[in-house]
Design brief:
The protein has a single domain, classed as Glutaredoxin (3-Layer(aba) Sandwich). The chain is globular. Strand 1, helix 1 and strand 2 form a beta-alpha-beta unit. It has about 110 residues and is an alpha/beta fold. It is built from four helices and five strands; from the N terminus they run E-H-E-H-E-H-E-E-H. Helix content is about 40%, strand content about 20%. It has a five-stranded mixed β-sheet, covered by helices on one side. InterPro entries: Thioredoxin-like_fold, Thioredoxin-like_sf, Thioredoxin_domain, Thioredoxin_ResA/DsbE_sf. This is Putative. It holds the Pfam family Thioredoxin_8.
């Protein structure tokens, strides 16, 4: 699962404990939160927020995250993309939506 976020985004910050819990609950699934901000900015938030220490973070300054969001007409964050083992998109939407959890449950069994 790829979750798009920004350090300045209040809904993204609100999702952090939820994402940390998902990482623990769905241990067979790689979950990464990706920001387009500078690595130092993301690191500062990670240092301040304890739950962020429990999941993967990445910084994309190459524009690939924006291309993914544009491809699927995503205009807001936080936003999650769930791909199956073959790389096919299974679901995308807000990471705290029930459909996100249901998709992860299906993948966690496989």
């Amino acid at each position: 699962m790829i979750e798009c976020f920004a350090t300045w985004c209040p809904p993204c910050r609100a999702a952090i404990p939820h994402l940390a819990q998902m990482t623990k609950e769905y241990s067979n699934i790689y979950i990464v939160s990706v920001s387009q901000e500078a690595i130092g900015t993301v690191q500062q938030l990670k240092d301040k927020m304890q739950p962020m220490k429990f999941y993967n973070l990445a910084v994309d300054q190459s524009g690939q995250l924006q291309k993914l969001m544009t491809q699927y007409q995503v205009n807001g964050i936080p936003h999650a993309f769930i791909f199956d083992a073959a790389g096919q998109l299974m679901w995308h939407g807000h990471p705290m939506d029930e459909e996100c959890k249901e998709s992860l449950e299906v993948l966690n069994i496989v």
